[in-house]
Amino acid sequence: MGGTIARLAAEGHAVTLVDLSDGEPTPMGNPHTRAKEAAEAASILGVPRLALGLRNRAITDDLASRAVVAGAIRSLRADIVFAPHPIDAHPDHVAATNLIEAACFAAKFTKSDLPGEPHTVRHIFHYFATHLRAVPQPAFIVDTTGFAERKQRAILAYASQFVHNEQNRKIPEWVHAAGTYFGSRIGCESGEPFGSRQCIALDVGALRV
């Protein structure tokens, strides 16, 4: 969802990328390299980044992890939270979504030992990851025309994953092709699909034909 992130930031919205873990270990990476790549990608998209320090390959919806994520939500006062799609081939993605949704619910508790002040998240939307070999059926598509090139640069900032790792070199091309396809579904150059478990209210007066 890099194009959406870049567009929201460019339009003046406060957007923060939150890393649950450092993503390590991987075949071609290490914690220092991945942190440097993540910082560069965030800079390209024009947003800050927050690392929560949970353990990669062991993401779990437990009370301790909920407290960490709910604390971040309270600190950021997040109105909208984006999480991976709940149906995914990557176990950490599925676990992350379960954890994030539970943390969003917990963030509003008034009588708890969670850090920060209670806060209610208005919407939780799901982005689609490339680990799932399926065609997304989105609830809505965001027009990311004008931001596709920046998204590609942000992806390639993760050189250890998509440049040095030969097995993953095609992924940026696939992501770009998907952006073109989903853009064509809404009559624009580039688009990104999102899912939602809940109904979405629309202002029909603002809809374009």
Can you give a write-up of this model?
- By secondary structure, this protein is α/β, with parallel strands linked by helices.
- It has a domain at 2-131: LmbE-like (Rossmann fold, 3-Layer(aba) Sandwich), CATH 3.40.50.
- The chain has helices at 2-10, 31-45, 63-76, 91-106, 148-156, 159-162, 171-185; strands at 17-19, 49-51, 80-84, 123-127, 140-143, 191-195.
- The strands form 2 sheets. A 4-stranded mixed β-sheet has the order 3-4-6-5.
- Helix 2 runs antiparallel to helix 5, helix 3 (63-76) packs across helix 4 and helix 5 (148-156) runs antiparallel to helix 7.
- It starts with a helix and ends in a 14-residue tail after the last strand.
- The model has no long low-confidence stretch (mean pLDDT 95).
